[in-house]
Structures are given as structure tokens and as C-alpha cells.
Amino acid sequence: MVFKKFMASMGAGSASVETELHHPQTTPGGVVEGLIRVRGGKVDQNIEGLFVEFQAVVEVETQDGEQRRNEEFGRLQVDGAFALREGSTHDVPFSLPVPWETPLTTFRGVHLRGTTIGVRTELAIDRAIDKGDLDPIQVHAFPAQALILDAFGNLGFHFKGADLEKGHIRGTDQRLPFYQEIEFTPPQAYARGINEVELSFVSGEHSTEVVLEIDKKGGVLSGGGNDAYRQFTVDHASAEQTDWSAYLNGWFQELGQRRGWF
Asked: Among residues 124, 139, 154, which one ends one of the domains?
């Protein structure tokens, strides 16, 4: 028995954890529900806690250049301490709230390349953390976000890619330690002056801050001050009352006329 406990403390014959997601599709502000099954190993063990959280791969600027790191967020404890008998199972259902600022992974059936989000389970045992496998989820836009994304499509912009950046967008109420940039290439009408447009959402329960930044031909924001950066707020309750395609087109036209793109 002493040998079994020693081996379990080293990970051999210890408890294992599996997670089953009922529906791996969600939206910011939604929930992810599932079932965690903890299986006993070859010896009785005392479990100290059970946790679930989201994980994303985020780009981080360092002295050695850009690196990609795992970033956890939305952590939730779903069970406390319990005794797990040898060979037994312990099932725990859970409902994990999706933070409003969670990055999107999919829109209108298209995967936003560069963004991966998953749910990971952690088992606290013997004063250590046993991390389970990462279960990928698809995060879709909620209606107010979809209106903005559709507006870009209506104007002829094409999705180019997306990435997650460590840091904070100035002038916003951002809470997560990273943000998403969704990149679009312009249609021919805007191609003379615009290389790409970067879109970020900073969402809350009642409204979404939309941040747009234009990568100009000739360099990001080269010349002309701050007019290639725009931030505005979309109220979720009244979002459908605005023609967002016309709103964006008006800004692009105004900016282009000032800079001689047309």
C-alpha cells in the first residue's frame, strides 16, 4: 500500500479526469455546460478541488521577439475537497460562464484563423495541479457583433486573419489581459489607401466598444494623425436601428477624401 501511494504521488496509478462538453458552441456572455468525470486510480486519494477554465493562445511581445503563450481566463471552482476511492468514479456537472470579452473563433461558418479557445479541467490533488486535456470550443458572434462583421462583408471587405494580443486597448473598459484583432483586406474601392483594417470588440452585458484601426498603404497610421483610428459604442438593445454598413462607409469615404485616396 505504501508503494502504491508513493507511485500515485509520482503520477503512476493516480486519479485521472475527463471532461465532456454538452455543446461546444457558445457566444460571449453565454455558458459552456458539461460533465467532469474523475476516475480513481490504484489507491485511495484525497482530492482538494476541481476547476474549469478557458484557455487561449496569445501573442506576447518579449525582448526575444514575439512568442505564443497559453493564457487562462474565466476560472471557476466546480467542486471542493472529497475522498476518491480506488477504482471509483466521481461525476460533477458544471456550467461555465463565458466572459463577454471572449474572442470569437467562428463567424457565419468560417473559422477565424489564428484564434483557438478551449476548456481545460484542473484536478487539485496532493498539493499539485493535474491539468486535463484541452477541449476546443467554437465561440460565435452575438447579434450586435454580427451586425458589425456583416457590415464589413456588405462593403466588400474580406476576412484575412485574426490574432490574440497580450495587452490593453487604450480608452476601453477591457478586463481580460489580452484582446482579439480581426483583420480585413479592403475591396478595390478602398485599396488605394488601405492595406487592411483591424477590428477589436470589447464587450459587456449591455454594450460593445468597437475599435477600428486602419493599416495605411505606406505604413501603419503613417501621416495624418489619429483619424485612421476610430472607437465607438454599440448598444445591444438598439443595435439593429443603425445601418452599420452606411456608418462605416461614411467614415471610410470621409477619411479617403481627406487623404486623397479617391
From this structure: 139
